[in-house]
Specification:
Layout (H helix, E strand, L loop, with lengths): L2 H19 L9 H13 L1 H5 L5 E10 L4 E10 L4 E9 L20 E7 L1 H13 L10 E4 L3 E9 L2 E8 L3 H4 L3 H6 L30 E5 L2 E3 L15
Antiparallel strand pairs: 1-2, 1-6, 2-3, 3-4, 5-8, 6-7, 8-9
Amino acid sequence: MTSRRMSRLFSTVCLGALLAGCAATGEVEDPAVRRLTWFSFLSGDDLRDACVPGQDSLRLVYNAIWDEDVRVIEAKGPAKGAMTVREQVFLRIDWSNLSIDLANPRAPWRGEVVEGAWTAEQAAGVTAALRADQAYAPLERPVQLAGQGFFWTGAGCRDGHGWFHAWGYPSAEFDALVFPDVVRRLLPSKGVFAEAYDVTPAYPTQNPRDNRRFFLKADAQGISGRLDLPPPPASRFLP
């Protein structure tokens, strides 16, 4: 085998390993894991792959400007039954009051986790609200999502049927959403969702020449990455 063919084979193997290693596992507290698997996590690849009859799971993600306020709500349980709930919140880091623990230097980027539970009746209310918002219907056309803006994604399993949907702001679909208000009243943290607004490209603390704007694309299969990359799953590995 020539050195060129060996090099090509090595590159192919490395790329395959990279893509395989960047599928969501459900864990995004570690910032390195989060950056490598975030698109797959938003798409609910792990939940849909593990979807079986008799079980329900959901993952709702509210992106209220990527590096300022991102909230993940996950719930799992038997179909039409009570559900355990896990809420993760990644807020903007206050650099002026930041202390680093050398034993756990990534701690400030791991966010906060609060756990709770929904009764069967509460879970049914969330399901009904998601159904009203067409969450369980595949996207009919691609939706552009602004990373430095506001959007919702939802994914999961309903009694053996996987699903994914997304709502970008501004849009009539986003403005008409029902489920955020229902879910807000059931948040384990008792927190609130940031109100969406039109974001201007520049930020007060931003270098005017530093363009922080980036966009994701959502379609029936899930989230694609930036730069007009190939369709998922090949485009899921970029942060």
